[in-house]
Design goal:
homodimer; Gyrase A, domain 2; five-stranded mixed β-barrel; BirA Bifunctional Protein, domain 2; OB fold (Dihydrolipoamide Acetyltransferase, E2P); about 600 residues; alpha+beta
Chain lengths: ~600, ~600
């Protein structure tokens, strides 16, 4: 037996007992007569003492232990004289009688400490060492507990976890698929699922009533920071439900996991129309920890001789409370920030509401005190506040100012730590018109139902009608992060066909790609609706962290590579020939 | 709201209440004045009554409902006059006041009944209809419950469920990988994991101590009946453990799920040496529900003038209790069965132990009564028993007779229904010599450790020594099905290198493919061991069924195709070009 106890469980009550522990040498400290070793495992750290007077040979060997050596120690538990109250095992230590080195360790390329000296690349390459560090270990353990909690909750509500296939069919709708060549079916490919969408709908047609799955999904996208080609969803679907049932069920789930894992009681989630979210926050995922709603200034800012505003569709402001004291340099910084190509604003107007009741703005030439007072009135600004104003096209300006709002809040520490502000964003548009490709895209996905009262308009309306259709689609947002989204689904063949037609499918294409689903709708499909939560994102948001990568044991880097195992990699010619494939890499001759 | 109750929950206590139900029309029965509809959902069936006298229009509409129509009914619960004790809701019925057709249904291509008239292909094509049938639904629900039970048990034992990546690196060892071309890394491929083996070992190196995952794995094999290209494992690994710890933990898990899901208490699992399993049952997965152990007859059957036996390495028999009365035709049937190419025996000798104490054999010409009596003595045969004897090469003959043993047991109903006989098979050989390729293969996998006392022999021994090395490898077998297997792992770089060398890897190949793992062994790798259960197989064995396909919601057929969604399929040229690939299909010009 390698151990009688783990390194986190011995207490004062165990004093006098003979024990065996195994673990990693966190650190050794040599005080001449006494050598102390902190022995670490997943469960904690226990102090081991080697006494030179007791056993010189043993103490000698202990002194030679390096960091991260794996050892087994036998000894007796005794009370510590200098207790460590910060450690669960801090009241005791083990006076060692035997020591066995189970495995040596080279000096790690970075320190295994909460604050490590290792850079990103190095830690990714030695991920198994990085994973030893407390912050990462806590994240991975949290993730495991969250999954268990989600499963227990949904299992208790009659949800069945049903596995859907990973080797499915490629469809051009949505993001790019990863494909898998089939050896047994020459020239043909499977695709890895971007989500189990069609399968969970078929499970509803099959009568399973309540389905969920914590499941890997795949998207071959150009990677941005904090996006992963494989990611995990809590994927759910319910039959014989309306939107309200789904919202209540998953609000319940969210409250449950916050209570169970974080000890936080969330109140009822507010709801917001999509249109209001865009209007007030310039975003479909408003961070409600931050105030500073967008205020339209058109009627007080236009036709006053300032050409930039006069030519704009929208003049829009946020009030930054108590920030009238920003320096010229800080304000220039904000201006430069919004002018970066990622944001794309042409400029930024500011108004300082001075303590003495006067105003100082970057457009004093065009707007006198009286006029600026009207801006202040409109935005509710008081002495000491700062107004930031952007103008231009309506939607773009709102988005730019919405981004600035978040940037300012972060930059000036205006986001209260440890608070969680959930929000349902509702009534998304069904379709999105894309001017470039001159076609509609599905705002959520092609299986989303228009609101019941919109069905008639959808089946009979003209082009402009389609732009204004609202869907029974909803997103859960927490602290400005999209946790998940879902919709009521179409379950009628004719309506589904109409939607595919609007999305630019020919009837043949629709049949070829989704004929199995539309066929299923003809054999008794119940009304159904569902939702999917981003599991990685939920983990990070619940812990107030921004990177999902720190909650994934073995993530890919921004180039989609696993630098630890060095994947992807070339495969040999035999494998390619078996798959009836050839490389068509530039410069290659195959 | 679509329903106040589901179709399985109303009881006599609900009589008088107004309710709303939704579900599928299982069947309608028209008795003129009264029309009865059995309304079905996942939870059960409730009888709905439409009364012509009450509401003629409603009854009229009810008469027109077809099978599998999706309807919503409002009405009042009342006590039934003719109760149905076979149904949980059998004491009540709903007298309908409103009826709404939520969706029509075409006549299904096969009946949605326990015994359907649909053939395999048709049911696979309309899987969403097949999944409505009780037998399949029970299987899928069982699977969901089993997963929940496994997770709760392991979660309660400090196991963490940790997701490992699906997009990894192809390795030539083992079965064929499915590969996934990388668009962002031109000419390179990911592979889908055949198991999370190396990642779970890295998690042990990373200190996670106890890992599990219920996870999809992938093997691109030539498909046989009841094999799936994607399948599910309960994958586990533990650090600071010996073989005994793993066996105890997973014996505990197995007992737990049998108790919780089947109400069956399993006693302690017997253990058998691999060598004994082969010797006594001609199989490394003996079905202990069947007796009929193999008995060697060399000393009583050879050198008696029967050339076939005399030239054989082994003469081996089973005693079939009480089957001396098989007819000549039945015995010929058995002979033909073992001579099929799948079994490959040259012939079959039988001895009937007649009720009167005499013997009748197919080799009476060579063996008189006295000699046959010795066979009977050796095998413990009594009057009424039948001996079946095969001869030839040792291992082949045992395998053939082992197969015959199972065939006879099935054919003559000698397997007790509803019994479960678990068994640990232990001490597998480490390496298997392959005469064709003139190299060793790993019996379990290349990460398996030889038994501790064998390490020295492995590091220093000659070729023949290697053939005889035993590993700390074990399989769990239930009723003759391999539920899972595992091993103690190598955690020392030098030993791992030696194993790769024995398996025919050059040092460069070993480094290229598994350098990350061997590197990890140098940074403090703890002793560790693990196991993986086939989850699909566990489901089927626990339910006394032979097909794993019936426990998978959307399985592939024997050609690896999903005939419902029609996958795999061709992808368009643009997709191929993006992946820097070209088809090399015969006859194609690309």
């Amino acid at each position: 037996m390698f151990r009688t106890h783990n390194c986190g469980e011995l207490r004062l009550a165990d004093a006098g007992n003979d024990v065996t522990l195994s673990g990693w040498v966190q650190i050794g400290r040599d005080f001449g007569g006494l050598t102390f070793v902190d022995l670490r495992d997943r469960y904690g750290i226990t102090q081991i003492v080697f006494d030179q007077d007791d056993n010189a040979e043993l103490a000698d060997r202990a002194r030679k232990l390096g960091r991260e050596f794996v050892i087994q120690v036998k000894g007796t538990v005794r009370e510590r004289t200098n207790k460590n109250p910060n450690r669960d095992t801090g009241n005791i230590e083990i006076i060692a009688s035997e020591l066995k080195v189970l495995n040596k360790a080279k000096t790690p390329p970075f320190t295994i400490e909460d604050d490590t000296d290792g850079g990103d690349e190095l830690r990714m390459q030695y991920r198994y060492l990085d994973l030893r560090r407390n912050p990462l270990q806590e994240n991975i353990i949290f993730r495991s507990k969250l999954a268990l909690s989600v499963r227990a909750y949904l299992g208790g509500k009659e949800f069945l976890e049903i596995e859907t296939p990973f080797l499915i069919k490629s469809t051009p709708e949505g993001a790019r698929d990863f494909v898998v060549p089939s050896r047994l079916n020459e020239g043909q490919f499977y695709a890895l699922p971007q989500s189990p969408q069609t399968f969970k709908q078929l499970l509803m047609v099959a009568g399973y009533d309540r389905y969920f799955q914590i499941v890997k999904c795949f998207r071959d996208e150009d990677l941005r920071a904090d996006r992963q080609p494989e990611f995990t969803q809590i994927d759910c679907e319910m039959a014989f439900v309306e939107q309200e049932d789904v919202l209540n069920t998953f609000e319940g789930l969210t409250k449950h996991v916050f209570a169970e894992l974080k000890g936080i009681t969330l109140g009822d989630f507010p709801r917001m129309q999509y249109d209001d979210a865009i209007r007030l926050y310039g975003s479909d995922k408003p961070d409600l920890r931050v105030g500073m709603e967008l205020v339209e200034l058109n009627d007080v800012a236009q036709n006053q001789g300032f050409g930039v505003f006069d030519g704009a569709e929208l003049v829009v402001a946020i009030r930054v409370p108590g920030k009238a004291d920003l320096t010229r340099k800080q304000l220039d910084g904000l201006t430069n920030w919004v002018k970066r190509p990622q944001i794309g604003a042409k400029g930024l107007v500011y108004v300082k509401c001075n303590a003495d009741g006067t105003y100082k703005s970057s457009v004093d030439k065009f707007f006198d005190q009286e006029k600026l007072a009207k801006w202040a009135e409109k935005t509710g600004a008081e002495a000491g506040d700062l107004l930031l104003v952007i103008s231009g096209e309506d939607e773009k300006s709102r988005t730019q100012l919405g981004n600035l709002r978040l940037h300012v809040a972060k930059e000036y520490d205006m986001i209260p730590a440890g608070t969680f502000k959930p929000l349902w964003v509702m009534d998304f548009p069904l379709l999105e018109w894309d001017e470039d490709s001159k076609r509609f895209h599905a705002m959520h996905h092609p299986f989303t139902s228009p609101k019941k009262e919109e069905v008639e308009r959808m089946l009979t309306g003209d082009h402009d009608t389609m732009k204004s259709l609202k869907a029974d689609a909803y997103d859960l947002v927490i602290n400005g992060a999209e946790i998940g989204g879902g919709s009521v689904r179409i379950y009628d063949r004719a309506l589904q066909e109409k939607n595919f037609e609007l999305l630019g499918f020919t009837p043949q294409e629709a049949e070829e790609q989704f004929g199995f689903l539309m066929g299923a709708f003809e054999y008794g499909a119940p009304p159904h609706a569902g939702i999917a939560f981003g599991f990685d994102r939920l983990c990070s948001v619940m812990n107030g962290q921004s990177s999902i990568r720190d909650f994934i044991a073995f993530p890919k880097n921004n180039q989609g590579r696993d630098v630890m195992i060095d994947a992807p990699a070339t495969i040999d010619g035999g494998q390619l020939r078996e798959l009836s494939l050839a490389l068509a890499v530039e410069g290659e001759t195959e």
